[in-house]
Amino acid sequence: MRARLSDIAQQAEVSEATVSRVLNDRPGVAPETRQAVLTALDVLGYERPARLRKRSAGLVGLVVPELENPIFPAFAQVIESTLAQSGFTPVLCTQTPGGVTEDEYVEMLLDRQVSGIVFVSGLHADTAANHDRYRALIARPLPIVMINGYAPGIDAPFVSCDDREAAELAVAHLVALGHRKIGLITGPDRFVPVQRKVTGWKAAMTRLAGLPEAELEGFAELSLFGVEGGEAAAGRLIERGVTGIVCGSDLMALGAIRAARQRGLTVPGDLSVVGYDDSPLIAFTDPPLTTMRQPVAAMSVAAVRALVDEINGHAAPHSEYVFRPELVVRGSTAVVRQPGATPAAPAETRQRPTPPALAVPA
């Protein structure tokens, strides 16, 4: 012990008596000196005494659908960091096709006596799913918060990006570039975010592009989420003559770009593509993707704060907090090409026209 105290004292540049007072959690030591001793413990590889370890406020489950789509690791990173700052230990649960289901993860988390659970794009977003599973958790009682998706009748906080507005802003951007035949690619229609995007796209197409709703059916393709689903859907829309495509995710947008290139078309010269999420690395694709950015950090912090308030007995309002998306213009959108004209410059390299009826945030 004497050799250990000597080593720690030397590393922290304090006396052995000071080290002893810190290790025994006695008063009379300046905060910066106490921190220097604790840092010396960590540097030398000594385990801190139990009385000096930061106590965890408890475990909190974080259930996400997958990690292949980079938007979900982005949510997980901010949520885990914010939970840790509040003293909670996050437990990440990732679903995979054919793997552990959301319900099985919940059972595992309940066995570990978690203090609460955050669900990201879970079954609460699926209108075909039985939402009694969430009512049962609330009845335990167990605090829960849901991100991206809304289910009526569940007495819990919801945090969502405004999918309807995202679709409207994307259409407004393309209309301002001269596009009128604007297609929509998104996922299965049983999901709430998909339904909202479809609603927003239809509203903007009738109001801004001047197309009656009866003519829009052939310009919407509901497909599987992911690159492959986007590629298949985009191929069908390209053959119907669209010049611009609004996509339900960045990965679907990458699939649309692939479909265009396979047909000898250029993006954005022949086809403009808008994604959704602004997930990490999307700014570095070829071309850099114009997309609707989800405010991941703000949404994640709001979800964690609502959950921590619930855990501490300060009930958060049980309603849906809706966050505004942001249009990020890069190189995958351009002025529509007129027959026989040369390809237009990407939208990010010139002044963007003002949309006729809907303001697009910079």
Would you give an account of this structure?
The chain has 362 residues and is an alpha/beta fold. 38% of the residues lie in helices and 15% in strands. The chain has eleven helices and twelve strands. The strands form two sheets. Strands 2-1-3-4-5-11 form a six-stranded parallel sheet, sandwiched between helices. Mean pLDDT is 89; it is low at 350-362.
Summarize the model shown.
The protein has 362 residues and is of the alpha/beta class. The protein contains 11 helices and 12 strands. Strands 2-1-3-4-5-11 form a 6-stranded parallel beta sheet, sandwiched between helices. Strands 7-6-8-9-10-12 form a 6-stranded mixed beta sheet, sandwiched between helices.
Instruction: Report the C-alpha radius of gyration, rounded.
Output: 26 Å
What structural class is derived from the secondary structure elements? alpha/beta
Strand proportion: 15-25%
The average pLDDT is: 89
- Tally the helices: 11
Helix content: 25-40%
Question: What best-fitting shape do the alpha-carbon axes yield?
Answer: elongated
Widest sheet: strand ordering: 2-1-3-4-5-11
Main sheet characteristics: 6 strands, parallel
Separation of the first and last Cα atoms: 62 Å
List how many beta strands DSSP finds. 12
List the helices and strands in order: HHHEHEHEHEEHEHEHEHEEHEE
Low-confidence stretches: 350-362
